[in-house]
Write a structure and sequence with these properties.
The protein has about 250 residues and is an alpha+beta fold. The chain contains ten helices and seven strands.
Length: about 250
């Protein structure tokens, strides 16, 4: 039987829900959510990512301590995302909800780390078994994953210290408020989704990159070539495209 939610927590949920709904369609939408939730839960950092098909994730915003590890964020967006549990779960059609990052580990996660060929720090005390260079140590990640049209996904990554009771408090609160937060983000993207897409990349560069070799290469060959041009190793390409290493080398 589920324990009743304390009245003080219900009050915080109500206040946060009202603030989240009020922020829909406004400038600084995620900043307002970050500020509202900071009054309710003891998170140390918040990062907002957008995942799209056939593309690296992009960072929409970051708050609090996340501003202090830009190198880690850049390395994640450049290359380590390909083995990250959130990205792998996105590829496999994860159900939107709030999760601890350890809940998203696949049975193949250890093998993916070992064969990736990526510059990572393998550390047993990390929840996912490794750390991206520049990423903070000894943090627990609580992930609110929100589905958008066209198979897009928003990740709100809340970080807490591994020790202390902050993680459990944040996790429980975010699960309770997930329906409101999810609905608000979906509605906000109905207003501003197109503007966010346009601002994230240079359209002319993206066009030439995506159309590279289309007259002479197969679709799979183009995928391999584009990843080579982006700087992926052969092992990382095989992992990302889920093909064998000899096939990558053949292409």
């Amino acid at each position: 039987m589920t324990a009743p939610i304390p009245s003080a927590t219900m009050d915080r949920i109500s206040v946060a829900a009202a603030g989240i709904v009020e922020a829909i369609g406004s400038d600084g939408f995620f900043a307002k959510i970050a500020e509202m939730l900071e009054q309710c839960i003891p998170y140390e950092a918040l990062i907002v990512f957008l995942y799209r098909e056939n593309s690296a994730p992009i960072m929409l915003d970051c708050f609090k301590d996340a501003r202090n590890f830009q190198t880690g964020l850049e390395n994640y967006l450049r290359y380590t995302y390909v083995i990250n549990p959130v990205y792998r779960a996105y590829l496999e059609g994860v159900v939107p909800n709030t999760y601890l990052i350890a809940e998203l580990l696949s049975p193949r996660h250890t093998d993916q780390i070992a064969t990736s060929g990526l510059d990572i720090r393998v550390e047993d005390n990390e929840a996912i078994g490794y750390r991206t260079p520049g990423w903070p140590k000894n943090k627990t990640e609580i992930l609110t994953l929100i589905g958008l049209p066209e198979n897009k996904l928003i990740e709100l990554n809340f970080m807490t210290a591994q020790t202390g009771g902050g993680t459990a408090q944040c996790h429980a609160f975010l699960k309770s408020i997930f329906p409101v937060l999810s609905s608000a983000v979906v509605k906000h993207f109905e207003f501003f989704g197109d503007n966010i897409e346009v601002s994230s990349a240079n359209p002319s560069q993206e066009y030439w990159f995506q159309s590279f070799g289309e007259d002479i290469l197969t679709t799979r060959e183009r995928s391999v070539v584009k990843m080579i041009l982006t700087g992926y190793s052969s092992n990382a390409i095989a992992l990302r495209l889920e093909i064998s290493l000899p096939t990558v080398k053949s292409h």
